[in-house]
Amino acid sequence: MSDEVVAYMTGERGKAAPASVEDVEEAVRTKNDTTNTNMNTNIESEATVPILDLEIQDIEGVGPTTAKKLKEAGIVSVMDLAVTSAEELSVDLNSSKESAAAFIISAQKLLRDSNLIQKEFVTADAALEKRRSMLRCSTGSRALDELLLGGIETQALTEFYGEFGSGKSQICHTLCATARQPIESGGMDSGVIYIDTEGTFRPERVEQIARARGLDHRHVLKSIAVCKVYNSSHLELIVKDLGKYVNDFNAKLVIIDGIISLHRAEFAGRGTLADRQQRLNGMLHKIIRLAEIFNIAVVITNQVLSSPDTFFGDPTKAAGGNLVAHSSTYRVYLRKSGENRVAKMMDSPYHPYSDTRFTINEKGADDIEEEGISKNSVGNKKGNKSTTTTD
Ligand SMILES: Nc1ncnc2c1ncn2[C@@H]1O[C@H](COP(=O)(O)OP(=O)(O)OP(=O)(O)O)[C@@H](O)[C@H]1O
Ligand SMILES: [Mg+2]
Q: Could you tell me which of 201, 264, 249, 203 has the C-alpha nearest to residue 228?
């Protein structure tokens, strides 16, 4: 793992910006000129970067003064403005919420008019066509991919939740190895941003997974930008600037391992619950907008509350209450089952309620051998329906 990459996201960054605004602008300009150039990173960028020829001043109503203020607030591109919340922007610009919202709407309109994001209304058949061409990333286990109807989706927030040791972080590590693989092999040919809130990211484990799968481990490791997050404010700042990192690292997958653990630890008492939920809410909404506008897949993990009253309560209740549940597009519950793991699709706008079994081995998340499923599942997405168990 390159120290440079880690330092980029965790080091001295002033107001959460990875470098000065001018540096970022320069980097964005350079990227516009040469598709495959990355800014001060070792990440190999073979995937196509969306070329943004749009300048912030192309937005209706944004003059040089507003553009300057936006840049000072770290908003350097039309995309950045499109994913900002009106509350946040009104503070940054010292303006009313209404005028901040108007800027955001204008930015989104410009992106729509430039065909960079979907039109407000599209016919259902066009929407279906678009969904069929959507990138998906293999989890490493074909059974798990089938539960997800083809793997982790872009423009969506996929939540894995479960008790300790249920395999949440292992799935995240496996995704790090699969995402770099070519699209036809079940990957997304892209970099990965890994936000580690629990200090459990292990590059050695990714290396082991990549080697065991016969992948180029050096190439895989160079594609992962890791950020170890120390407190909830740090996490919120990283999420605020995530759009920039996604562009800089050419990432199509963002993993946040332990989305609420820091907030949960810091906002312990009942009295602080409303504050915590509000901050989490702002962060989750930003993440969803990023997934949609930047066309990226976001994977989050969440722990299950250990509740002594499981006779009466729901033992599969994730931390963060309804907030995280309502924000996630797809929710998958994981639990240990002897040597293996069971994954259940708990909530989805289109997946059936079903479950499947997988295992964790040197290849990371993998299929259970005795069930007659091919072990090396990366790129093997069209296999038979996996065994579905109900327990
Ligand atoms: N190299 C490996 N080979 C086989 N199994 C492994 C390997 N590394 C980890 N595991 C398995 O993965 C488990 C840990 O899973 P993981 O770290 O994904 O848990 P988690 O769901 O993220 O838990 P937590 O809530 O504590 O973060 C270990 O208990 C072990 O069973
Ligand atoms: Mg973990």
A: 201
Q: In what order do the strands lie in the sheet with 355-361?
A: 224-228, 191-196, 251-257, 297-303, 156-162, 330-337, 340-347, 355-361, 364-366
Cα 168 to middle of ligand 1, angstroms? 8
Average pLDDT, the chain: 79
Q: Report pLDDT for 321.
A: 64
Regarding the beta carbon of 199 and ligand 1, being less than 6 Å apart is answered no
CATH of domain 3-123: 1.10.150.20
> Which residues have a beta carbon within 5 Å of ligand 2, which is an ion?
168-169, 200
Nearest CA among 113, 73, 111 for reference residue 95? 73
> What is the C-alpha separation between 287 and 290, in angstroms, rounded?
5
Q: Under a CB-based contact definition with an 8 Å cutoff, are residues 201 and 194 in contact? A: yes
CA nearest neighbour of 193 among 167, 212, 175, 213: 175
Q: Is the CB of 337 under 6 A from ligand 1?
A: no
Residue 205 Cα: closest atom of ligand 1 = 1
Residue nearest atom 20 in ligand 1 by C-alpha distance: 165
CATH of 126-371, one of 3.10.580.10, 3.40.50.300, 3.30.460.80, 1.10.287.110: 3.40.50.300
pLDDT digits (tens, 9 = 90+) for 316-367: 666 666 777 777 889 999 999 988 999 999 888 887 888 999 999 999 999 9
Give the residue from 288, 368, 290 showing the smallest Cα distance to 330.
Answer: 288
Residue 37 pLDDT > 90? no
Quick check: pTM over 0.85? no
DSSP state of 58: G
What is the domain partition of the chain in residue ranges? 3-123, 126-371
Token digits of residue 387: 């065994």
pLDDT in the model for residue 281: 87
pLDDT digits (tens, 9 = 90+) for 60-108: 888 888 889 898 888 888 888 888 888 889 988 888 999 999 999 999 8
Q: Which DSSP category does 265 fall into?
A: H
Q: Which of 275, 123, 263, 282 is nearest to 198 (CA)?
A: 263
pLDDT digits (tens, 9 = 90+) for 160-204: 999 999 999 999 999 999 999 999 999 999 999 999 999 999 999
